[in-house]
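Appendix B, example 12.
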Amino acid sequence: MPGFSHRWRRGRIASAAALPVVLLLVGHRLVPDGPGHLGSLAESFLPWTALVVPVLLLCALLRRSATAVVAAAVAAAVWGSVFGGTLVDKGAERTGGGDLTVVTHNVDEHNPDPAGTARALAASGADVVALEELGDATETYRTVLAARYRYAVVRGTVGLWSRYPVDDGGPVDIAPWPRALRATVHTPKGPVAVFVAHLLSVRFTPASGFGAGARNAAALRLAEALRAETPPRLVVVGDFNGTTDDRALAPVTAGLRSAQGEAGAGFGFSWPAAFPVARIDQILVRGVEPRSAWSLPATGSDHLPVAASLRL
């Protein structure tokens, strides 16, 4: 059957593209994170390896290649084993809602409409709103949010607004200027320790690769502060400039659970707002149960707001 045999020989070069994708999916932790932080870069965008599957299927169609079909099927199966569970709406599986709704949003210091952004966040119905990258519009956010949120604490470029009393609102030293705070929110179900953090940005250049050194140093300092926390209920929110799969953020994420990962639908990508490709805005918890997690509509920021309902 020469025709059948020929179909297996076709498309071998195209099918070879599946091999590095499969190896990356199963062995991404082995990618070195030395100069250029390639390991962090690969882990941040690992879900997008799914794009290889339709490319392989197209090659299989054009070449009538059985080899390319098998390669696409293997890549799809491996990707599904790694990320398939993420696509399920895990919040839909839970009965009953939460006691505390939290929203976090990098509002973008160049936001052309800070008042509109503040009104949209207030209209979300959240009990607690955490903002990062406040900048010159801080007073606008204070004024607009005060109509719904009686209690607020701002430290540098991050702030926390709450329907419930807040105290212990102090800065957390993660950078040369204030980019994180820690406060206690006194809910009707008892106190909750809340951290709001904005880790430093990452940069990519052809010469140095993925420049994440400053962010990683800030993450280590934040992790040290979190390890010192003794309250049983802890919520950590903010713009981490990295995904929870990024190994460099493991010191922060260790011992915490992602609200999106446990109770959201899909990946919950939050940046950039125009075409989100990664979830770098996080709601992480300890000692509370995520009931649902979602993204809010775009504002004037380059990030999407993200929200979670938590049972205390």
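The radius of gyration is 22 Å. The chain has a mean pLDDT of 91.
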